[in-house]
Amino acid sequence: MSKYKTWTPEDKAFLEEKWGEKPIGWIAGRLGRTEDAVVVMSRKMGLGPHLDAGDCISMNQLLYAVTGSKGCGSVTKRWIENGLPVKRHKVRRCYFRVISIDAFWKWAEAHKDLMNFKRFEELSLGREPAWVKVKRKADVEAAIRTKKNNNQPWTAAEDRKLQRLVDLRKTYPEIAAELRKTEGAVKRRILDAGIRGRPARMENRRWTEEEAVLLVKLRESGLGWLQISEKLGRSQLAVRGKYERLLNPDYMQRRYRGKAGPGQYIGIRDMSAEEILQGMATRKIAQGGGWTELEEREGGDYDRADAI
């Protein structure tokens, strides 16, 4: 008589059903077998690695698919700090961070501004939500516009050129295009490098209700500030500033600036487009049916350095 316990069809069916879903130790306990025996049988059955068998993927797999690199610790940290729903997956004595693809898409839709899909190949995570195609196209276009210069340290030559462009009274969009940087990066560098003077302001014009609604919808579609600014004919700083004022209509007025208490200031990813539009409709009713524009000059007096 064999000293080994025979695998029944029911045992194998149970193993196939739970493989990748439950820890190996849990499966072994339910079957009354050792973990080694369970692993050996899983290989005979061709079930594949335990980590790959469930409905989740590892963080390394996700990062590689989205960014093209597995060495993105800062990206992982930023995503998790903003609520990425990761779970721990145990494989024998090791633990891995994993996430359901459906849960990732739901989270990513609410955090589009944290996503950069310029290296994210189509369908590399399977079926994609419709908004991903728009976001990918926008990120690729933005990368081409700021190729090599954006996110790179400023050089002494670039600082001299920045000072010269400011002296020539160029606007933020003109300077950003010339240096192939974002307007936010230009504004930050002006402050950090102590550049004398400020860029010329664009023509000051009030926002219409239609423009504000379009801004919210464009942002919800996944477009970045660069693409939105071009569609609306305004600076990136102006469209971001308007978006923040729609979220914080009281605290973005001059008399309230800097006075928001803990938890009172609403960040740019803390409300959905539907909630923003509902707030606009509610304020319109409270104002007697009219549209009131919060006055800010084009170019962004609102723009604190820490808001870039």
Please tell me about this protein's structure.
- With 308 residues, the chain is mostly helical.
- The protein folds into 4 domains: 9-53; 56-145, no CATH class; 146-200; 209-303, no CATH class.
- 50% of the residues lie in helices and 5% in strands.
- It is built from 15 helices and 3 strands.
- The protein has helices at residues 9-18, 24-31, 35-44, 50-53, 59-67, 73-81, 101-110, 130-145, 156-167, 172-179, 183-192, 209-221, 225-232, 236-247, 273-286; strands at residues 56-58, 87-91, 94-100.
- Strands 1-3-2 form a 3-stranded antiparallel β-sheet.
- α2 (24-31) crosses α3 (35-44), α10 crosses α11 and α13 (225-232) crosses α14.
- It is elongated.
- The model is unreliable at 295-308 (pLDDT under 50).
Key traits:
single chain; about 300 residues; mainly alpha; three-stranded antiparallel beta sheet; 15 helices; 3 strands; elongated
